[in-house]
Amino acid sequence: MRNIVYPSIGILLLLLVWQLVAAAVGMPWLLPTPQSVVTALIDNANLLAHHSIYTIVEALIGLAAATGIACLIAFVMALIPLVRKICYPLLLISQMIPIIVMAPLFLIWFGYGMLPKILVVVLICFFPIAINMIVGLSAADEQMLLFYKSLGASRGQLLRLIRLPLALPYFFSGMRIAAAYSIMGAVIGEWLGAQSGLGLLLTRAQRAFDLPLVLAAIVVIVLLSCMLFAIINLLEKKFSPVF
Amino acid sequence: MQVSLSDICKTFLIDGAPVKVVDDISLTLERGVFASVVGTSGCGKSTLLQLLAGYYPPDSGQIITEGSICLLPQDDLLLPWRTVIDNAAIAAEIHGSDVADARHRAVELLPLFGLEGFGNSLPSQLSGGMRQRAALLRTYIAAGDFWLLDEPFGKLDALTREAMQHWLKQVWYTLGVGVLFVTHDIDEAVLLSQRIYVMSPRPGRIIATVEVAPNIDDVDRLELKKQIKSLL
Ligand SMILES: Nc1ncnc2c1ncn2[C@@H]1O[C@H](COP(=O)(O)OP(=O)(O)O)[C@@H](O)[C@H]1O
Ligand SMILES: [Mg+2]
User: Fold this and answer.
1) By three-state DSSP, how is residue A44 classified?
2) Model confidence, pTM
3) What's the domain range around A49?
4) What CATH number corresponds to the domain at position B41?
5) I want to staple A51 with a disulfide (CB 3.0 to 4.6 A). Which of A102, A201, B17, B37 is the partner?
6) Separation in Å, CA A22 to CA A209, A210, A217, A233
7) Looking at the partner chain, which of A148, A165, A243 has a beta carbon nearest the beta carbon of B122?
8) Which residue of B54, B75, B79 is in closest CB contact with A143?
9) Model ipTM?
10) Is B81's Cβ below 8 Å from some Cβ in A?
11) What is the pLDDT of residues B16-39, one digit of tens each?
């Protein structure tokens, strides 16, 4: 219960301050009240749902691809020290390139379809998963591996019996961050040119100075991100070892 | 059935410099015999057991093992996400032998190991003494002939330790295994062992082998402890 109570207090306080400030400013076309955002949400429900679907699909495909790529990278890097030494700097560099600069390049290379958006999501999401997985797969201490090796365990058995179970909690913390960012990644991709999606809706609403709709789209983005976050938490409860 | 070491040496690189940790150690374990190694901390006791368990080969010397042998490491290294039974049967899983049979044996041994009703508990739900007994159960399922015990009671409180010492002596007697028990506690070694190897500070070598008579009286026991203490 407390898990819900305290965050709710924070959100309600935010809404209250917002409502008071907006009422005091008295210029709804510049600073819409929360009330008008709710109205925009209801009036544009179909429109928002239509564009959300594109964004969700891009985010989910991107997240899935990122998970696969990140796990592959993490396995190879954690198990082969030489590869780790060579690739670790590249991994870091990949995160130093500003996404906002890469997205237009993807657009030029891959057009206005879903692919460039998915690539932006992959670029944002693979990193937290890969980094956490590398740490997780290296979490078993030397003494533990030596002991189970002395019981006769092969490298594969050490991986399956010890390293993977130890890595699972790390994997899920990476997934949580990635899931929270994935919707945002898709929106950034759409922002720079798309046929559908919340990012496109945002740019259109902005050009039309429809601020309540802009804010309504942002609310949808936040809600979708929270939902993915919650799904990962559920998966972790189901699959991650408890101890 | 016995395990014999002859002229074992082991050198480690510590901060880049080679340091001889185990120096020319020879000893023999026999099934059914309880032997101890006493020595100050850092003298190479764990290294000796790890050589016997096959963690790494000795630099020189020979180890001949008959029968099965298993180490109980200083930290029990139970896998925290596995239940007591699943931990106990892990060796069978690794060897690809009959896991169901190993689990069945583990279940039957729970009362002897003071774990009745805790077969499905996770290690984090056990007390310190119970964890050690669970780890010892894993050792027995893995190897029925020789146990290498690395300061198994070192982290227990005094009362639990005393109870565990008496319990271990009984289990050893019941199962008839050969034990090499490492400790820095002379009282513990004298209480449990039939034979005590006294190890020097680094480089660890065996400076005395003391036999403890089965019917030793309190006066002689005190004398024995004094004698070992003076050696260390
Ligand atoms: N794998 C290793 N690599 C390098 N040094 C080690 C290793 N294992 C043990 N040592 C060193 O060997 C010495 C003896 O260690 P150990 O056998 O654990 O002593 P004890 O168990 O008697 O306290 C210590 O100085 C320790 O730092
Ligand atoms: Mg030690």
Assistant:
1) coil
2) 0.85
3) 33-239
4) 3.40.50.300
5) A201
6) 17, 16, 19, 36
7) A243
8) B75
9) 0.93
10) yes
11) 999 999 999 999 999 999 999 999
